[in-house]
Amino acid sequence: MPALASRQNAVVALRFGRLAAMGTVAALILIAGVWASWGTAQHVMLTKGRERGTMTVARCADDRCTGPYRPLSEGSTARDRVVLDSEVAVDKGRTYTVAVKPGSDEVVRTGTGGLLYAWAPLGGALLLASMVVAGGLRLTRLAWAFGGAGLTLLTAAFVTL
Fold first, then answer.
1. Element (H or E) spanning 22, and its range?
2. Is 82:106 a contact under the CB 8 Å cutoff?
3. Is 39 in contact with 106 (CB distance < 8 Å)?
4. 138 Ramachandran zone, left/alpha/beta (phi>0; psi -120 to 50)
5. Which residue has the higher pLDDT, 61 or 116?
6. Are 136 and 25 in contact (CB under 8 A)?
7. Across the chain, where does the E strand assignment appear?
8. What integer is the mean pLDDT of 68-85?
């Protein structure tokens, strides 16, 4: 009988170890998604005191678009050239509302499209974490919720941009 109790204790320890390891992996994936998103999202979401305006796309090359910046917020200054990441789906000649990253000539799109694009890395992390939650933690309902939220976020970003 002591061998059976020892075996049961080992199974419980292994099950706890699997849950702890997979829970840690899922948490790290989600934290990395938030971390990757926050670098852009903070400029889109926390606009108080930031320079906001419009940018007309004049030229796109090397995954970057440039153009003149016209201010909309108080204290913002006009610039002849600002840089926007061209992965944000912009068209040459169109004007977009943007926010200037402090201390640079880089801008990020604002509005619904810019917000959804900023949180796209979190959408990918949610999709990846759903696989870990389903396979490693065997929490299928939570995995479906994570996967659905990630897919919804990525689809909404794709549609709005």
1. helix 2-45
2. yes
3. no
4. left
5. 116
6. yes
7. 52-56, 59-61, 64-71, 79-85, 95-100, 106-109
8. 94
